[in-house]
Amino acid sequence: MAIGVLALQGSFHEHVLALRRLGVHAIEVRKADQLEGLAGLIIPGGESTTMAKLANQYNLFPALKDFSTSGKPMWGTCAGLIFLADRATGLKDGGQELLGGLDCTVHRNFFGSQVNSFETELAVPALAASEGGPPRCRAVFIRAPAIVEFGSSVEQIADCEVPSFSAPPSLEGEMFTRRRVAVAVRQGNFLGTAFHPELTSDTRWHSYFVKMVQAFEEVAASSALVPQKFCCRNDSFEEMKDLPIFEGLVQEKIL
Fold this sequence. Notes:
Shape: globular
Strand content: 25-35%
Number of domains: 1
CATH class: Alpha Beta
Order of helices and strands: EHEEHHEHEEEHEEEEEH
Distance between the termini: 30 Å
Helix content: 10-25%
CATH architecture: 3-Layer(aba) Sandwich
Radius of gyration: 17 Å
């Protein structure tokens, strides 16, 4: 069983490293034929418009759309979340093509510009119940989107207080009578996070996604051919020192 990471632009390498730390076979995906045989796919953070242009340039969108409708698990982080949303606002002039799948509206750059990037801790009881560890996680927001609306079939896994600098003019008013906004959701085999779990040493989000992939594989397999489970080595993450990747401004290659 292999999990792919779309490797056109952004923080794909960090996702690959996180998966490999869990003992998972991870493949960097740049061509349509590399999607064949994958059990799941991660779309990383980066610059969503640039990523969309590259996907069109390399004729990846048809294959990505086929993958998104196959039922196989997909996880979008930051820019990847925008890709997986059914609706997006705050896009650049001309918009961008979306894969869709998540019944939600995502606002691009909701939390402000690059200089407004920040780190915080999020309450994640559902993640802790599934993967163990503390009921909070470190979250890195880099020129990040947010989920401003979502359907009844979408489960909110984490929300975040809206910083005072982050109220986009297009969304001011009634929506901001509430001071929190969704930043992690799941709908069936789609997972979306507005932040960058791959930039910390806490691999519980990756372990959570791997278990989504395992569950899908088990359902899809015949009773006579059940795939062998593998163990996500996630119980020692508390002993690891956190990664000093994000201090102030993020590295240029992640932008």
